[in-house]
Design goal:
about 575 residues; five-stranded parallel β-sheet; 22 helices; globular; disordered N terminus
Length: about 575
């Protein structure tokens, strides 16, 4: 059995595919070749997707050349940040504005003489406090990153930290600690001008957030942290050239990957499990957003599975493909062995060789092409996000209600026991109550409801943990333990997202993609809330509104969902919940 090698220099091999997927791939390959679809993609032909507004969102195809042409601006900001003596950079953003900088910050070592880059993309009060404690406000540069300039989270981050910096360095100097990255004419541009920010960098209106890694949204933070953006972009350009229509389609690294992804999804292998070498582990978070938000709509799509521990072949069903991004010279022996075992068992594995960390730009572009191609095969608009917008609308309604009344609308749990509260919409509550009524009663309602909810998982489904708690190593370890229990006992794909950051990425696929998800949302009491300057609501209220808005849209889309609410001791609550899940399974 051979494996697909997909990178600019290597022709992918496809004899490793299961027979039905191999046949589907060849059919789609022939169609793309005969119809000149790669050329049409580069010509920005909207009819490749749905013929709606797709042509407006393809600016990312040419952004690498544009960035190389304006390299002096990136070098200038790098020199300026270094000479200013900042010790830290705190980027305030969500989704496409934050995930690429996060990948770079967690992959590249701190450059000598440059500040450390941190990313804040949570409304959890404990997490905001944690980031504030990490930095010296008087020596920190803040990058407020918001394409539209109207996204709730970056705006309230800015309100909070601008006030804190004013208190620290004085009102006249505060603006020099801030940079904005936003689209021209946005509300954020107006705020930045009013508050005399050090710089305003502009995005391209023709690039959506999740395709913006190689635009200013990714490259300005990269330059500020001392990354050699010239080298990074030159390396990326190799992939851009390899993905153009002049390359024979069977040698095109981005198109071939997209053809595999789209062909597999249409055959029911609609989950892609991401296996990344430890040195590039955080790339998965960026890939999650790109794939889920682009393809998960109209009840179809591809569910990305990131950071799921690699299991034995018998842990998996027949609803996945696997992508192994192997960092050459720094691979993990256990991953190599695990992937080899999957191949031997007949699972489809795509191997991608990443030569070094400066090749990450190549992966950004390869996967953007691949995702656009997969979206075409699925027959969806790969550039909109209707269900993300639906959650934002409900959140705004709830925060507005709080502003006018001083409280969120009351809610009543379906179960309250042992420090836990369970919540569900009427339809999910009725289904679970019916299942609980038909089962044994000796365990009590908490265990019985959890058991009934997890019993809804069947072949081809996936389980998603949606944690509206502080994202830290302890909490992630406990939630990883819980998801592995479910994966190994139920043989289903599992996902783990921290709210509200996942709302701007995988949340689209959860609500708009295939109705094969079973969701366990986790909320908590905030031991110490944090005010939002100029607002009645607090960060804790915003987080609660986001969780409730998320759940409401899941329910509106007829998703199988249950919410478990912990007390204020989040670590203890998660530990108890993980034990309960083990017991009921």
């Amino acid at each position: 059995m051979s494996t697909a090698q997909i990178h600019p220099e290597v022709n992918p091999q496809t004899e490793w595919l299961p027979a039905d997927l191999d046949a589907a791939l060849k059919k789609n390959l022939d169609d793309w070749r005969a119809s000149g679809k790669v050329k049409r993609l580069w010509q920005r032909d909207a009819s490749l997707w749905t013929g709606e507004d797709e042509a407006k969102w393809l600016g990312w195809l040419g952004v690498t050349d544009e960035q190389l042409a304006s390299a002096a601006k990136l070098n200038q900001i790098a020199d300026e940040v270094k000479s200013a003596g900042f010790s830290d950079i705190l980027l305030l953003g969500m989704g496409g504005s934050s995930l690429c900088p996060e990948v770079l910050a967690l992959t590249f070592a701190q450059a000598p003489g440059f500040p450390r880059l941190h990313i804040l993309d949570s409304t959890d009060p404990a997490q905001i406090r944690s980031f504030e404690k990490k930095v010296d406000l008087a020596k920190t540069l803040f990058i407020v990153s918001s394409k539209s300039g109207s996204t709730l989270e970056p705006n309230i981050y800015k309100q909070y930290f601008f006030e804190r910096v004013q208190q620290t360095v004085g009102a006249d100097k505060a603006g020099s600690h801030f940079i904005a990255i936003t689209d021209p004419g946005s509300k954020m541009q107006q705020v930045a001008e009013r508050d005399r920010f050090r710089h305003i960098f502009y995005g391209l209106p023709s690039i959506g957030g999740r395709y913006s890694a190689l635009s200013n949204f990714g490259m300005v933070p990269a330059a500020a942290m001392g990354l050699d953006t010239g080298k990074f972009l030159q390396r990326t350009k190799e992939m851009v050239e390899a993905c153009k229509a002049s390359t024979p389609i069977e040698h095109n690294p981005g198109v071939m990957l997209g053809l595999i992804m789209g062909s597999a999804a249409k055959l029911g292998r609609d989950k892609i499990t991401l296996i990344n070498s430890p040195g590039i582990a955080d790339l998965g978070a960026w890939l999650e957003q790109l794939i889920a938000e682009s393809t998960g709509k109209l009840d179809r799509g591809i569910i990305p599975v990131d950071r799921e521990d690699l299991g034995a072949p018998e842990a998996y069903g027949n609803d996945r493909i696997f992508a192994y991004l192997r960092l050459e010279g720094a691979s993990d022996a256990a991953q190599d062995a695990g992937v080899a075992a999957l191949e031997k068992a007949g699972q489809p594995v795509v191997r991608i060789a990443v030569s070094d960390i400066y090749s990450l730009g190549q992966e950004f572009f390869r996967w953007e092409i691949a995702t656009a191609v997969a979206g075409s095969i699925l027959g969806i608009n790969a550039f909109n996000q209707p269900d993300v917008e639906a959650s934002k609308i409900v959140t705004k309604q709830l925060t507005s209600a709080y502003e006018s009344s001083g409280s969120l609308p009351p809610e009543k749990p379906v179960v309250e026991e042992a420090g836990f509260k369970l919540f569900a919409d009427d339809e999910n509550a009725a289904e679970l109550a019916k299942a609980v009524g038909a089962g044994p009663s000796s365990d009590g309602p908490l265990k019985n409801y959890l058991r009934a909810h997890l019993a809804r998982l069947g072949a081809g489904d996936y389980f998603a943990l949606l944690g509206y708690v502080e994202m830290n190593a302890e909490h992630e370890s406990l939630l990883q333990s819980l998801r592995m229990t479910v994966r190994d006992r139920k043989r289903v794909a599992t996902c783990l997202g921290f709210g509200p950051r996942f709302l701007h990425s995988t949340g689209q696929a959860y609500k708009g993609g295939p109705n094969s998800g079973v969701f366990l949302q986790i909320t908590c009491d905030d031991a110490n809330d944090l005010p939002v300057p100029g607002q009645k609501y607090t960060f804790g209220v915003v987080k609660a509104a986001q969780a409730r808005g998320d759940f409401q849209v899941l329910a509106d889309r007829k998703r199988r969902a249950l919410r478990v609410h912990l007390g204020s001791d989040v670590k203890a609550g998660l530990g108890k919940l993980a034990e309960l899940v083990k017991e009921v399974l």
